[in-house]
């Protein structure tokens, strides 16, 4: 039997997940588990690249496992695990760090954005080398596809460069070429208070958190920044607020942007439009929150993680062995 293709992705437990995480990543993951051998992990080592309170990190980690399950990931089909449980990630990282260059890492948008906020003397080496660890995550499992939001595609591109470089150097196909897969609609959800800025979990203003009270969610959507016009049209340049709300609506309704535009073509009151968007978001998020709470209280999380760690380690260690052999590290009994 031909081996199934593999899908892999992860989320950093650095804060409360947002509607952007849900639309760009979480809800996409389960679409792959029937056709791909799927690995979805919690990028907890990546969460250490900026200072974080230990108890906050720990709670976020548990939360994400519960969110994965609430979003429909089935542990029988998808290997769900913690990055830090599989030591091969750190080991492959220490080999691959020699295959990416200072120049290319310093051009990464995420690094530039995050390091800009810091004093140069206080930029952690881990923040700079972040894409090396991310490449290790992807390559350990020989993932064919990597479902991510827009902001992560640059890191996947860099991983592709690394694969090319590594395979060329050793004249064999050690790693498979991975490909980023973005959601059809909603790969970049913007902040509701400033629709020119990405919705992100480190910036609470105008962002919808998956754990927000339903009334707060409605309030945030009703007060989303729009323009002074009255047309519901997709035009990210001139109407970023309306375009963002249309994107959210289209994504959660599983329709295209054009279909969403069409639905609202006779509406001229932004208030009425926002109310319909809020209803849709709540229709999706309310049962999701309910499942999340049940899962958190059910005690299944540790079991899912311990089984996931075993499965993931088995595959990751096989790849690591192959890489060690390739580069000339001496393997013995
Ligand atoms: P992070 O929160 O950086 O760990 O991101 C986890 C996943 O969510 C990645 O695939 C991101 O690309 C995706 N993501 C994060 N923020 C957004 C957003 N505002 N819109 C769409 N996808 C997002
Ligand atoms: N860098 C990703 C983010 O910030 C998280 C991540 C780490 C990831 N390793 C990965 C995503 C491997 C996909 C594949 O969102």
Descriptive keywords:
single chain, globular, two-stranded parallel sheet, 3-stranded parallel sheet, about 325 residues, binds adenosine monophosphate, mainly alpha, binds tryptophan
Uncertain stretches of 5 or more adjacent residues: none
- Strand content bin: 5-15%
Please tally the helical runs, counting DSSP H or I stretches of 4 or more residues: 13
Structural class by helix and strand composition: mainly alpha
Bound molecules: adenosine monophosphate, tryptophan
Let me know the largest β-sheet: 3 strands, parallel
Can you describe what's shown?
The protein is mainly α. Helices cover 51% and strands 7% of the residues. β1, α1 and β2 (37-42) form a beta-alpha-beta unit. The two termini are 31 Å apart. The mean pLDDT is 96. The site of tryptophan (TRP) has 14 residues, from β1 and α7.
SSE inventory with pairings:
Elements: E1 6-11, H1 19-29, E2 37-42, H2 54-70, E3 78-82, H3 88-96, H4 102-106, H5 109-116, H6 125-128, H7 130-140, E4 145-147, H8 153-170, E5 179-181, H9 214-222, H10 240-253, H11 257-263, H12 270-298, H13 301-327
Parallel strand pairs: 1-2, 2-3, 4-5
The structure holds adenosine monophosphate and tryptophan.
């Amino acid at each position: 039997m031909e081996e199934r293709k593999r899908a892999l992705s992860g989320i950093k437990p650095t804060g409360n997940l947002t509607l952007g995480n849900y639309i760009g990543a979480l809800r996409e993951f389960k679409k792959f588990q029937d056709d791909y051998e799927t690995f979805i992990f919690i990028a907890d080592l990546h969460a250490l690249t900026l200072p974080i309170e230990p108890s906050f990190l720990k709670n976020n980690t548990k939360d994400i496992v519960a969110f994965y399950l609430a979003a429909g990931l089935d542990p029988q089909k998808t290997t769900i695990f913690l990055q830090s449980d599989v030591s091969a990630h750190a080991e492959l990282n220490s080999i691959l760090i020699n295959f990416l260059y200072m120049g290319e890492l310093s051009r990464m948008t995420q690094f530039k954005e995050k390091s800009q906020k810091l004093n140069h003397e206080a930029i952690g080496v881990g923040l700079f080398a972040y894409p090396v660890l991310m490449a290790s995550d992807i390559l350990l499992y020989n993932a064919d596809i990597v479902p991510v939001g827009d902001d992560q595609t640059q890191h996947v591109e860099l991983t592709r460069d690394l694969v090319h470089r590594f395979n060329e150097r050793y004249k064999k196909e050690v790693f498979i070429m991975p490909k980023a897969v973005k959601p059809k609609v909603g790969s970049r959800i913007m902040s509701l208070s400033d629709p020119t800025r990405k919705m992100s979990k480190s910036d609470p203003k105008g962002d919808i958190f998956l754990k927000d009270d339903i009334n707060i969610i409605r309030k945030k959507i009703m007060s989303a920044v729009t323009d002074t016009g009255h047309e519901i049209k997709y035009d990210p340049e001139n109407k970023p607020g309306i375009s963002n709300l249309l994107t959210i609506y289209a994504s959660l309704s599983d329709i295209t942007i054009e279909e969403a535009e069409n639905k609202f073509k006779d509406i001229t009151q932004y208030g009425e439009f926002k109310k319909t968007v809020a209803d849709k978001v709540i229709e999706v998020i309310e049962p999701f929150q309910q499942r999340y709470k049940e899962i958190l209280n059910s005690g299944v999380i540790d079991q899912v993680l311990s089984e996931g760690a075993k499965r993931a380690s088995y595959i990751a260690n096989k790849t690591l062995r192959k890489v060690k052999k390739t580069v000339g590290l001496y393997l013995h009994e």
